Amino acid sequence: MRRKVEKTRLVLVHGFPLDSSMWAAQKKHFGKKFKVFCPDLPGFGRSEKRAPKTMEGFARGVKAYFAEEKIDRAIIAGFSMGGYVVQAFYEMFPKNVEGLILVDTRTAADSAEGKAGRDKAIRSLDEEGVAFFADTMPRRLLSETGNREDKLVKEVRKIIMKQKSESVKNALIAMRDRKDRSALLPRVDVPTLLVCGEEDSFTPSEEMIEMANLVKGCSFSMIKRAGHLSNMENPADFNLALEDFLNGSERRKNE
Ligand code: MLT
Q1: Separation of 30 CA from ligand 1 center, angstroms?
Q2: What is the pLDDT of residues 88-102, one digit of tens each?
Q3: Angle between helices 81-92 and 55-68 (to 10 degrees)
Q4: With a 6 A CB cut-off, is 227 part of the ligand 1 pocket?
């Protein structure tokens, strides 16, 4: 008799200062074959919870989401700040993780200069509200080509403008004070994929390749024609990279 194999669960964790809607193209693409979950981190998108001021707090928010959705184990992906959250989640709740996907992110903590940048961003947020991020973030999130695509820039701005000032501030504090998790990578013992936009200048591919080299058997995928926000800028190639990895995981389950 053939054993019934459950569909792979894929949890996609958004970045800053965005929400779950950044994954629309992935939800649509993978929705039939896999069980796809796109949580809003506490305080973001439709979440009515208060945003915590630590990455561990955000990871606990994801754990609560796993409980609400009755997810026992899943492949968990995190983009940029979502990647910081996913690393904390893996460190705190490894039993819930079947595979890891880290997208345009890093393991290092903020440098002194980076921390000062967070404080400056908090001051700008106090003075100008989230509009400050809607005006300045697309330059950092998208490649030069992406920045010339009106529709994409508008979409990113629209997501940012929906976020609450208090949540954005708390996330800036959490990112500023997050710990260095570089030591985690050699200890990772689940299938892992790292993905990076070729034109990502915020978390550059050289840095992500070094990270990939630290994880046993890690796959790495470079997304062409994309900056930091690689899944929104080139969803076709991004989805292909994830699909390869997810199919591999389905095969292993069926063996
Ligand atoms: C993100 O894209 O989630 C953030 O820009 C990450 C960061 O600021 O460190």
Answers
A1: 25
A2: 999 999 999 999 999
A3: 70
A4: no
Pocket residue to mutate for ligand 1, from 12, 13, 16, most atoms within 8 A of Cβ: 16
**Nearest alpha-carbon partner for 215 in 197, 192, 195:** 192
Is residue 148 within 8 Å of 138, Cβ to Cβ? Answer: no
Q: Apex CA 89: angle with CA 45 and CA 22, to 5°?
A: 30
Query: What is the rounded CA–CA span in Å between residue 234 and residue 134?
Result: 21
Cα(20)–Cα(72) distance, rounded to whole angstroms? 20
CA angle, corner 72, sides to 67 and 77, nearest 5? 90
Domain 9-254 CATH superfamily: Alpha/Beta hydrolase fold, catalytic domain (3.40.50.1820)
Give the other-Cβ count within 10 Å of 61's Cβ.
23
Residue 77 carries which DSSP code?
E
Question: What global pTM score does this model have?
Answer: 0.96
